[in-house]
Specification:
about 220 residues; alpha/beta; 7-stranded mixed beta sheet; 4-stranded antiparallel beta sheet; 7 helices; 16 strands; about 25% strand; globular; binds ribulose-5-phosphate
């Protein structure tokens, strides 16, 4: 927790009055949102999930609701979000929380994207390090699963013995990457499978900075 808190606070140090701020999803992003609440800045937040929206509102951050954001597409000054894995080229795996589709939309609309992670997230290679989340239309689960089999086995994400449903009313297939295809190509190839909404690889919109936290509270800025 110390590591996550340290990076969250570090990234929040870049947020200034008047900014439009992308709010990530997950335990690390949540620490940043709480910190922004404490800082009591005059900002507008763009939440990347329903959960994040609720938390941001509860700590007093002025929120642009998702639909309004999509309609008006204001430019976001800075997006602060976590990740499940980060490779040496700053390619990311996200989607452990199932929010990667909106998170990618927010990151893409942001002038700056600061990624906040603890040191356990750093890996030499993304392949095999963490399941890749693929958001799928519910009617396409079986066909996408068959297509994904060429890359590795996939599993429908469950929560409390029920199918996990995303904020966009879709399902998630988590697949373990077993082939050595470059992740940059894979991100695009998976999204070309009919029925796929988006996947948790972030290789196009990479972070502009990665803040890495350590258990003693030290932070490295990459
Ligand atoms: C959610 C995400 C999160 O950023 C990722 O899962 C990291 O979460 P945490 O900070 O809890 O480790 O991509 O979809």
């Amino acid at each position: 927790v110390k590591a996550k808190k340290a990076v969250a606070e570090k990234a929040c140090g870049y947020v200034k009055d008047g900014m439009v701020v992308g709010l990530g999803t997950g335990s690390t992003a949540e620490l940043a949102i709480k910190r922004l609440g404490e800082l009591d800045l005059d900002i507008q937040g763009i939440p990347s999930s329903v959960r994040t929206e609720g938390l941001a509102r509860s700590v007093g951050i002025d929120i642009v609701p998702w639909k309004e954001f999509l309609e008006k597409k204001p430019r976001i000054d800075l997006d602060i979000d976590g990740a499940d894995r980060v490779d040496p080229d700053w390619n990311l795996i996200k989607g452990g929380g199932g929010a990667h589709t909106r998170e990618k939309i927010v990151a893409n609309a942001s002038r700056l994207f600061y990624c906040i992670v603890d040191d356990s997230k750093l890996v030499k290679k993304l392949a095999g390090s963490f399941p890749i989340a693929v958001e799928v239309r519910p009617d396409s689960v079986d066909s996408v699963k068959r297509e994904l089999a060429g890359y590795g086995a996939s599993k429908l994400r469950m929560r409390d013995q029920k199918v996990f449903i995303t904020d966009n009313s879709n399902y998630i297939l988590d697949f373990s990457l077993s082939v050595g295809e470059p992740v940059e190509r894979l991100e695009v190839d998976i999204n070309e499978i009919p029925g796929v909404v988006d996947n948790g690889l972030f290789t196009r919109r990479k972070p502009d900075r990665v803040f890495v936290g350590y258990p003693d509270g030290r932070v490295d800025t990459l």
